[in-house]
Amino acid sequence: MDHAGATRRQALSRAPGCFYSGTDAHPIYVDRLGAAQSGKLPIVLVHGGGHTGACYLTTPDGRPGWAPAFAVSGREVFVPDWPGHGRSPMRPDFATLSSTEIAESLQRLLEEIGPAVLLVHSASGPMAWWIAEQSPQTVAAIVGVAPGGPANLLPVLPDDAEAVAKLKDDESLGCPVRVEEDRPLFIPPEFMRAYWANSERFPQQAFEAYRRSIVPESARLMNERFNIGGKGLRIADPANLSKLPILIVTGDSDPRHPRAVDAATARYLGAEFVWLPERGIAGNGHMPMCEDNSDEIAALIVAWLEAKGL
Q: Three-state DSSP class for 54?
């Protein structure tokens, strides 16, 4: 961290529980919880598409979320909202907000507070691999929860809505969608139920509360997530991440992240892979931070971090 970064970090350590970071073009709002105990690195919890950092602060049924759980474990916790999400400003061209632009804003946050553990979910996975390669001094470890792989691993899908629609049930491709980039994408409730709130662990009695938390998404981000037209976020060389501790965690009820897909991402990146049923944890879908055993999975991640001395 340079002198300016160190000064900023000292200021943040005395700041109230929220602040703004990111790039000039794409500022991001950040919640800050807890205080670091000796020897424990801060952790940054990054949400996926259609969500905000609120998914880490509390669960849909009102229990404490992963952010307070990590704070109780003795870590300083930072929870950003992507640009244009939650309390982060939305520009008029939000529909074409790219993965790289979001990653650059998150990279700026890590440069201010790092080195840190970076925990990512779903569509923020490709951003984590990119940030770790671009700014390795800021990322001490990565925990990927059902994370998207780098586009290096994804087949190039045609930039054709009709052709992609024929692949929408192909779990090996992540059940892809292709959307027009002339307006933000509003996620319909039936999509949420099919892919995000589908598991037996999801608190279905709180689905309406969850639905109200979902925000419009950049159409370009969605297309990049499925490597439509080969425009997904790539890394230059997985060897650049070979010395980085990486954990990938996946449940058995996530149609967009079957075991084979996330295991392949782990092999490519040299990561440790946890298929939750092998730890006696069954029934989790795409949103384990919201599900009824969220504390159990948070404890698994905390134990991994502590075993690594992070």
A: helix
146-175 pLDDT tens trace: 999 999 999 999 999 999 999 988 888 888
> Residue 4's pLDDT is what?
54
What is the DSSP-derived secondary structure letter of residue 147? P
Reduce the DSSP state of residue 28 to 3 states and report it. strand
Q: Which residues are paired to 118 by β-bridges?
A: 44, 142
> Please, are residues 179 and 223 in contact by the beta-carbon 8 Å criterion?
yes
Sheet holding 18-22, edge to edge: 18-22, 27-33, 77-80, 43-46, 116-121, 139-145, 246-250, 272-275
The pLDDT confidence band at residue 39, using thresholds 50, 70 and 90, is: confident
Tokens found for residue 285: 């879908």
* 0.90 exceeded by pTM: yes
Residues in contact with 91: Cβ distance below 8 Å, sequence separation at least 6, in sequence order: 25, 26, 83, 84, 97
Selection from 31, 125, 34, 147 nearest residue 85 by Cα: 31
Dihedrals phi, psi of 287, to nearest 5 degrees: -120, 60
Question: According to CATH, what is the number of the domain 3-307?
Answer: 3.40.50.1820
Domain positions in the chain are 3-307
In this prediction, residue 263 carries a pLDDT of 98
Distances (CA, A) of 173 to 228, 260, 271: 11, 11, 21
Which of 42-67 are b and which e, b meaning 16 or more Cβ less than 10 Å from the residue's Cβ?
A: bbbbbbbbbbbbbbbbbbbbeeebbb
Please name which of 60, 52, 63, 56 lies closest in space to residue 77, comparing C-alpha atoms. Answer: 56
Q: Which whole number is the average pLDDT over 257-277? A: 97
For residues 162 and 169, the answer to whether their CB atoms sit within 8 Å is: no
Q: What is the pLDDT of residues 14-23, one digit of tens each?
A: 455 899 999 9
For 30, 73, 91, 230, the CA distances from 104, given in Å and listed in that order, are 15, 29, 16, 20
DSSP state of 265: H
Count CB atoms within 10 A of the CB of residue 120: 25
